[in-house]
Amino acid sequence: MQTVHALDPLRNAVSRLREAGPVALVPTMGALHDGHLTLVREARKRAAGVVVSIFVNPLQFGANEDLDAYPRQLARDSALLEAEGVDVLWAPTVEAMYPAGFASNISVAGVSEGLCGASRPGHFDGVATVVCKLFNQVMPDVALFGEKDWQQLAVIRRMARDLDLTRPAADAILGVATVREADGLAMSSRNAYLSADERAAAVALPTAMRAAIAAIEGGADVPATLARMQAGILSGGFRSIDYAELRDADDLAPLAARSEGPMRLIVAARIGPARLIDNMAVNPS
Ligand code: PAF
Q: How far apart are CA 285 and CA 277, in angstroms?
């Protein structure tokens, strides 16, 4: 595996990879867990060359968020990626990504509004801007993202469609199913913030979500079910809920009743020092 920290060596490394066939990109912020490694394995199935980026992107963190505390473990992450047979690790410095004078911003309306867009103002501008840069830097044939960040995936696909991106094209931006711990908690780098007691309690989130999905699919009233789900999450040990909504899976339009198209139950809730997000599919009526 070749590790590069600047744009020129990255472009040279990717050019060499491209000679062997299609190139896949897995963008990450590091602190890798099995969810990320699943993305890498899926990337390997789809491309001759696999590039993983690790960049803790300051633009997507709000003033009171965990930018400084966000785990940075490049040596450990690098060993994990090497073991997965990754070809290139792109680990730019902040100066390489945002040189002095950097002044641009990509803002995607619609799908970025509400949900995490409401509780983390500016977050999706930061995500869209860095992901657009990563796409232009690596020019991958395919890019893979975890479905755990469902709204993020919708924002990135919208951006790719709106800006006529070709490397990757919008339909080559692939979502990979959320990887879960044995008890059902979605894997996340932020789970590391939890104490043992908080970690044990955090299972209340997927448990309450599954119960709500069973109720909605069984015909229960959606607002009442969401209220019961929120009560279950809070009584399980979460201190607050940023949002808990049923949304159209594609355009993220809010739904007050079960619809005939694919839906997603999407939740963000706070426990101890962590803000955890999760989403699950709800079958159409
Ligand atoms: O999902 C993440 O880890 C980040 O939001 C991403 C897509 C790497 C952009 O910084």
A: 25
Whether 123 is catalytic is: no
pLDDT along the chain (285 residues), means of 10: 97 98 98 97 98 98 94 97 98 97 98 96 98 98 98 98 98 98 96 97 98 97 98 98 97 96 98 97 93
- How many Å apart are CA 19 and CA 22, to the nearest integer? 8
Superfamily of domain 189-278: Pantoate-beta-alanine ligase, C-terminal domain (3.30.1300.10)
Fold of 2-176: Rossmann fold (3.40.50)
Atom number of ligand 1 nearest to Cα 60: 10
Q: Is 23 in the pocket of ligand 1 (CB under 6 A)?
A: no
Minimum CA distance residue for ligand 1 atom 5 = 127
Look at the pTM and tell me if it is higher than 0.85.
yes
Quote the ligand 1 centre to 182 CA distance (angstroms). Answer: 24
d(CA 245, CA 103): 35
